[in-house]
Design brief:
Chain B: It comes from Arthrobacter burdickii. The complex is a heterodimer of chains A (366) and B (354). Chain A has 15 helices and no strands. By secondary structure, chain A is mainly α. With 354 residues, chain B is α/β, with parallel strands linked by helices. Chain B is elongated. Chain B starts with 8 loop residues before the first helix and ends in a 9-residue tail after the last strand. Helix content of chain B is 44%, strand content 18%. Chain B has 10 helices and 14 strands. The chains are: A mainly alpha (366), B alpha/beta (354).
């Protein structure tokens, strides 16, 4: 249904040609850039991203002034260690939501990975091998979601609510109510270690590489641009030659794999492998992604915006904790932020729409 | 399509945003370098301005509130300049870590923690100790490597055995029983359950009692209620339920009291007198047990003070004064015992208010 291989390659070839005008060099730019409107969308996203980053900056500066000891490398270390799982999973989640789908099973995949890790390691397997198997498990879990959603055409919300329970259940089957803690001290120490005096966790290097990879895929490849089209209209995307099923399948492979990485990180950072690890993380991730300006209806969003969203929630969280504000307040704050971030653009576009229609109405008839 | 503007700002925008984020992270750590030194100095503090922070398993738990009430009283009497309570809303393994981190950064002198997981809090506690904090575990122990002392309500085995005794009495020494516990990973609950299972197997008095199920209500009222309901449906011959958690026993009692099983299925475990009073009076529950949780927090605060002052190091045989409760000794494994559990029934329950 999603187009023959021929039409796919045609679409793939066409897109880079259209993408080139962005660089502003080829002579076709004037012709192609105007009807396409992609860069226009990006400009609007720039506005949204920029706002997010300003808000983040304001929060950081305000917290540095008001909260004693907030402005310190220690904060950076603790804060980043806390947000890394959210940050990791938010990357593929951004792509999934932009393409108009959702994945609620990510935290359960992380939990399953954690459980597997515990059992395999306790069983005496080489730690390297354990890690490889865990990543593969994430890949398989993602593929399972992917097949159901992309190739059987089932709604992702229903499928991943199911696998949310299924994978968590499997985790419980794998490890039961045990907790495995005796991971190699060198390895667990590495996962909480920081780069010199900067406070930046060493693992952040890997996370940054992943961020760059996902940003490049989403914003600079035909595949990534196709996801935006997919989120706007699946039919239209199919017509322009995007292999919808394949794209979706790849996305779920990515969420599965990255969730496994987050599960491994979680296990080693807390040096505890348990079936209930990372529970509830899916909602934190989705909240951060939406706050970062990704439209829940698909078609809109960016990696920089999401980064700002994740860091904003993380910073507010940590700052309030440092100020010993109760977690009850904390939940209210993040909840309100989310509502505002979803409502604000709607109000803005409603105003714009109203202005536009007034202008149209008052325009002289031909 | 709605967006019909053109321009090449898209990529530059994305890059600019990325760069800004990166710059932000860098500036956040760069700017703080100077303040860090002064921060940790004031944290070490001299005597008289010592601070103590309690980190319970989760907030908004009635049992925890009583423990913390005792802790705050103890902290005041022991002479701490300030005492704080911080903690997560959910009792998951890792939820306490960021609270420990924040306290480490604030330079808190004594951290009193009831661990949701004995190991997950380990690295964070190690950092706290490296920064000079004393760690007292209470209620639910951490791995002994990560704390200076563990203040335990009572001997874990006593707690387990008293619950078995109570259930055996109430069901006439034979029949099917089940356990409704807190979370599947709760250190203290699991230890009690382990002792109960061992005793059931080894003690001939309990030969006719069969433990048919262990379920977990996650210390969540609704979930515990549903688990209790499920137990009675799944095991029609069930004679009794042991719930070694105050949330679980109250929820189960609430279910039993409105069901056909009221008075027929025995319920015992660890409960708060104030929560259980109506169920004892209406005949749903005959007798249950608990220590005075306020004493737990109280002793923990004094233990923290003794550690912070350097009076004790947590070695076996160390002794310290715990206010009005008198002298306490550190036992094997750095464990301080508070006292034996109390049994509550219709005759004495009105004497207690917590």
């Amino acid at each position: 249904m999603a187009g023959t291989p021929g039409s796919t390659s045609q679409g793939v070839e066409k897109r880079p040609k259209q993408a080139r005008p962005g660089a502003g060099k080829t002579d076709t730019s004037k012709v192609l850039a105007v009807p396409k409107g992609r860069t226009g969308a990006a400009r609007i996203l720039l506005g949204r991203d920029a706002v997010m980053i300003y808000v983040l900056l304001v929060v950081v500066i305000y917290a540095s002034i008001v909260i004693p000891r907030f402005a310190s490398p220690v904060t950076v270390g603790f804060l980043l260690l806390d947000v890394i799982p959210t940050l990791l999973i938010a990357l593929p989640m951004t792509l999934v939501i932009i393409s108009g789908e959702i994945d609620l099973s990510v935290a359960s995949i992380a939990g399953l990975t954690s459980a597997l890790m515990g059992v395999l390691w306790q069983g005496g397997m080489n730690i390297g091998l354990v890690l490889v198997i865990c990543v593969l498990a994430g890949l398989v879990a993602g593929a399972f979601n992917g097949v159901l959603i992309a190739y059987l055409g089932l709604p992702s919300l229903a499928v991943t609510i199911g696998t949310l329970a299924l994978f968590r259940g499997l985790a419980l089957v794998v490890i039961g109510d045990n907790a495995v803690a005796n991971f190699p001290p060198g390895l667990t120490a590495f996962f909480t270690s920081k780069i010199g005096g900067t406070g930046i966790p060493t693992v952040m290097v890997g996370v940054v590489l992943l961020i760059i990879a996902f940003a490049v895929v989403l914003h600079f490849t035909p595949f990534g641009r196709g996801l935006f089209a997919l989120g706007y209209s699946k039919e239209a995307a199919t017509f322009v030659g995007i292999d919808v099923a394949r794209s979706k399948f790849l996305l779920y492979l990515a969420t599965g794999t990255v969730s496994a990485l987050a599960g491994i990180y979680w296990t080693l950072r807390y040096s505890s492998a348990r079936s209930d690890n990372a529970s509830g993380l899916e909602l934190a991730v989705i909240a951060a992604v939406l706050l970062g300006g990704v439209s829940i209806f698909g078609g809109k969003g960016s990696i920089p915006g999401v980064l700002a969203g994740v860091l904003l929630i993380g910073t507010i969280n940590y700052a309030l904790k440092l100020d010993r504000v109760s977690e009850v307040v904390l939940i209210i704050v993040t909840g309100s932020l989310l509502i505002i971030s979803v409502v604000a653009p709607n109000i803005a576009s409603a105003i714009k729409q109203a202005r536009h229609s007034r202008r149209v109405r008052t325009a002289p008839l031909p | 399509m709605r967006f019909i503007h053109s321009g090449s700002t898209g990529r530059r925008a994305a890059f600019a945003a990325l760069a800004t984020s990166a710059a932000l992270i860098l500036s956040a750590c760069g700017g703080g370098a100077a303040t860090e030194g002064s921060g940790s100095e004031s944290g070490s503090g001299s005597e008289g301005d010592q601070t103590i922070t309690f980190i319970p398993k989760q907030l908004n738990n009635p049992y925890t509130d009583v423990v913390l009430g005792g802790g705050e009283d103890g902290a005041k009497e022991a002479g701490f300049a300030s005492s704080e309570v911080v903690g997560p809303l959910d009792a998951s393994a890792s939820s306490q870590v960021s609270f420990i981190n924040a306290e480490t950064q604030r330079g808190t002198n004594v951290i009193v923690i009831a661990a949701n997981d004995p190991d997950a809090v380990g690295p964070a506690l190690e950092e706290a100790r490296a920064a000079g904090a004393k760690i007292v575990a209470f209620d639910s122990d951490t791995n002994p490597d990560y704390r200076d002392l563990f203040v335990s309500q009572v001997n874990a085995k006593d707690v387990a055995l008293i619950q078995l005794e109570l259930i055996s009495e109430q069901i006439g020494g034979k029949g099917e029983i089940a356990i409704l516990s807190a979370t599947a990973n709760a250190t203290n609950q699991n230890e009690w359950i382990k002792f109960m299972e061992e005793e059931l197997e080894s003690n001939p008095d309990y030969a006719d009692i069969e433990l048919v199920a262990k379920v977990y209500g996650d210390d969540d009222d609704t979930k515990s209620f549903q688990e209790a309901q499920g137990l009675l449906q799944a095991y029609p011959d069930l004679k009794g339920i042991i719930s070694p958690t105050t949330v679980g026993i109250a929820a189960t009692a609430r279910y039993l009291s409105t069901s056909e099983y009221k008075g027929k299925v025995a319920l015992t475990g660890l409960g708060l007198p104030n929560e259980m009073r109506p169920f004892v009076k209406d005949g749903t529950v005959t007798e249950f047990a608990l220590w005075d949780p306020a004493q737990l927090g109280y002793v923990a605060a004094f233990a923290g003070k003794a550690l912070a002052d350097g009076d004790i190091t947590g070695e076996t045989g160390d002794t310290f004064e715990a206010g009005e409760l008198g002298e306490r000794e550190v036992g094997d494994g750095g464990i301080v015992l508070v006292g034996p559990p109390t049994q509550f029934n219709a005759d004495n329950i009105d004497d207690y208010d917590f």
